[in-house]
Specification:
Helix content is about 40%, strand content about 25%. It has 7 helices and 11 strands. A 7-stranded mixed β-sheet has the order 3-5-4-8-9-10-11. It has a two-stranded antiparallel ribbon with strand order 1-2. A two-stranded antiparallel sheet has the order 6-7. The longest helix is centred in the middle third of the chain and has 20 residues. The chain is globular and about 65 Å long.
């Protein structure tokens, strides 16, 4: 195994943590050497325990993980908790020829959003007038809708991906991955995708899919949402999901 204390990248020093041995959220840049499978497993563990988002760049050429998250942003939007992250500005093409951009969607945001939404819903007469079976069905639909928000890329995610892809895709092979409560999602852009229209179209399609959830298991709702978005976004982007680590 390669032995190093730090790596220099684009004028920044990424130090190898001396105590922590796994990928973790941090406000300071760091680097680990580990293969993709192990790194994704550690990110999937973080999804269950972290209340912060963070971003990593993975070089498939030399199995290096660079943490570039600087600050987590937490805000409320439409009655849900949304997490974001400010990152260090790094030239991704200097990571290697095959690069993956990773971030996490923590389970924390999904749990807190469900609590907030149901707390407000239970105060409304419309909810109170439902019988117990109808209330349970309503709660399941809300849970599924929030599971979709907590897992698939947000409009802000797609905005960032389009920017990075436009800037670096001619210099390196680049894809985008999200470790979520329901699996690791990968976002790719077809060669002839009209990047100028992706963001606007995605936002409309996202809301359409989110509003069509049914009363079934959260995992099925997320996978169904991915399938529907791929149908609606054909030739613009493709999302795949792997739940083998969940």
């Amino acid at each position: 195994m390669e032995n190093f204390l730090f790596k220099e990248l684009d004028g920044m020093l990424f130090r190898k943590p001396l105590i922590k041995k796994k990928l973790h959220t941090s406000n300071f840049p760091y680097v680990f050497k580990k293969d993709r499978e192990q790194g994704e497993k550690e990110l999937s563990d973080l999804v269950e325990t972290s209340n912060k988002e963070c971003v990593w760049l993975y070089s498939a050429d030399d199995s290096l993980w660079y943490s570039i998250g600087f600050e987590t942003i937490k805000k409320e939007k439409e009655g849900t908790i949304r997490l974001g992250v400010v990152t260090y500005d790094v030239d991704m093409s200097k990571i290697g020829k095959n690069v993956s951009h990773y971030h996490i969607h923590p389970k924390y945001a999904e749990n807190e959003s469900y609590k907030m939404t149901m707390k407000d819903a239970r105060k409304e007469d419309k909810y109170k007038k439902k019988n117990p079976i109808e209330q349970k069905a309503f709660e399941k639909i809300i849970q599924n809708s929030i599971a979709i928000i907590a897992s698939i890329p947000s409009k802000e995610d797609i905005d960032a991906y389009v920017y990075f892809f436009s800037k670096y895709s001619k210099k390196c092979e680049l894809d985008f991955k999200i470790a979520s409560p329901y699996g690791v999602l990968t976002v790719e852009f077809p060669n002839k995708a009209d990047l100028d229209s992706v963001c606007e179209v995605y936002e409309k399609r996202f809301e359409k899919v989110r509003g069509s959830v049914m009363n079934y298991h959260e995992r099925d709702a997320v996978f169904d949402a991915v399938h529907k978005i791929n149908q609606l976004m054909k030739d613009l982007l493709k999302i795949s999901i792997d739940d083998s680590l969940v």
